[in-house]
Amino acid sequence: MLQAYYDKNKIEAGVDEAGRGCYAGPVFAAAVILPKDFHHPLLNDSKKLSEKHRDELRPIIEKESISFGVYKIDNQEIDIINILQASIKAMHLSIEQLTTPPQLLLIDGNRFKQYKNIPHQCIIKGDGKIASIAAASILAKTYRDEYMLELHKKYPLYSWDKNKGYGTATHRNAIQKIGLCEYHRKSFKILPSESAL
Questions:
Q1: Residue 192 and residue 175: Cα distance in Å, rounded?
Q2: Is 122 helix (H, G, I), strand (E, B) or coil?
Q3: What are the backbone angles phi and psi of residue 104, rounded to the nearest 5°?
Q4: Contact present, 29 and 1 (Cβ < 8 Å)
Q5: Banded model confidence at residue 150, pLDDT cuts 50, 70, 90
Q6: Rounded to 5°, angle at Cα 29 from 57 and 10
Q7: Dist CA 24 CA 22 (whole Å)
Q8: What is the pLDDT of residue 191?
Q9: How many domains does the chain have?
Q10: What distance in Å separates the CA atoms of residue 124 and residue 139, rounded to the nearest whole number?
Q11: Would 157 be classed as within a structural domain?
Q12: What is the spatial distance between Cα 78 and Cα 81, in angstroms, rounded to a whole number?
């Protein structure tokens, strides 16, 4: 059972990212402020939900939230600043899009950099504990999946419609056969010559 909130007296934004461990494509982050009384029986960590349920929840979260923001950092920038910094930057820029200023940021995981002067709380596996973080995880994941389906049309051989850029066997085999494309994260050293796949 998810907690409805962390601090009932503060306007809280749940923040999460998607695509951090992928071989290809951007990292997406989302920030969501939910009403304190928001409840949906399906709401959970996006990784525990089916694609159908995530897609069902996304418009509900967007409609019912007080405010939400989604932002992506592309693979070229990930290669320059590294994936941790890119994830945090995407989180900051998703928070920036909130039309209601949050008084507390609830961050999934254990790494974050202070955003402006807003206090934050890092919560390990927060997307399975707090409703607003779960909602952010669903938005980040669904926006990213949608984006990867578009990239799949350009490069169908990598099967991004199925693996969404993660290093599955199909994806790795395609890389071995045809090499990397402009959407791969070169800093991840994913070519067979550079790491044991």
A1: 8
A2: strand
A3: -150, 135
A4: no
A5: very high
A6: 75
A7: 5
A8: 73
A9: 1
A10: 19
A11: yes
A12: 5
